[in-house]
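Hi support team,

I've been running sequence recovery on a batch of backbones for a student project. Most finish fine, but this one hangs at about 90% for roughly twenty minutes before it completes. I'm not sure whether the input is malformed or the queue is just slow. I've pasted the structure tokens below so you can try to reproduce it. Let me know if you need the job ID as well.

Thanks,
M.K.
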């Protein structure tokens, strides 16, 4: 299975509570933080929730 690399590019300020908690679950929290995780349906769902705050690359 491929990995996904995602980076936070916008602030979570002004986002609703569920979106802020999703950022926390993805281990993001500051602009510029980058994580690589295995591509799973659960991860895709979390990224879909905060798609306007993150940038995604497949690796």
């Amino acid at each position: 299975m491929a990995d996904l690399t995602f980076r936070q590019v916008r602030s979570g300020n002004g986002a609703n509570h569920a979106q802020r908690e999703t950022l926390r679950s993805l281990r993001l929290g500051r602009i510029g933080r980058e994580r690589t995780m295995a591509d799973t349906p659960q991860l895709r769902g979390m990224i879909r929730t905060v798609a306007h705050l993150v940038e995604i690359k497949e690796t």
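--
Follow-up from support: It reproduced on our side and the slowdown came from queue contention, not your input. The mean pLDDT is 94. No action needed from you.
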